[in-house]
Hints:
The chain has 225 residues and is α/β, with parallel strands linked by helices.
Amino acid sequence: MNQSKLIKRLDDLSEAITSDINEIKQEIKDTRDISGDKIIEKPIVLIIGHSRESGGATNKKYNISEYIYNRELANEISNLLNVMDFERKIIISERQSYIGLPNQINELNPLFSISLHANAFNQEATGTEMLYYHGSELSRQLALILQKNITNALGLKSRGVKSKKEKDRGGYLLKKVNCPIVIAEPFFIDNVKDYDIAKNKSHELISAYANSIVEFNNVLENQNG
């Protein structure tokens, strides 16, 4: 075998080992903050996608942005969980800065977090998807629960759960937050049909989020013993 092929094999092996190490580190990060007796004290954080200054994607017909939509949605989810007598504290967090958002969330020491967004592309794309950081098994479990419940609630096409790396869209937040976290994209806000479905099935969507939070909370509490 010539030298160039040997070097390529060595590079491939090194990359594979690095990937395995990163996945193990991610699992350690996931479990570090949900272990121990103080699990009961940890809140759940709902992050409102985007900010007042940068509202994200919009629906032109209804003149509504991701930020405005998800600010209301976060409050409705929290209110429903309160009605359901869910005992864990829910914190709604508004982004102060993009770069500082992970630290802003980490300071709250959450059990897990959901970043509320809505997709956008060409006013025709449709469906539900969840984003999580690759190598984070607990984040993947949360994504699967959200995907199942929200797809059933809205009845839109399932685009699946998608793993992301740091340089991918959303990857910076997903990597830097020290707890299981998912970016939720339940529908395409720029698609009038998608938005109408989400609007008409708002109670079902709110319930899907709330039930997912309860379901994943139970998963973590059971794992903790």
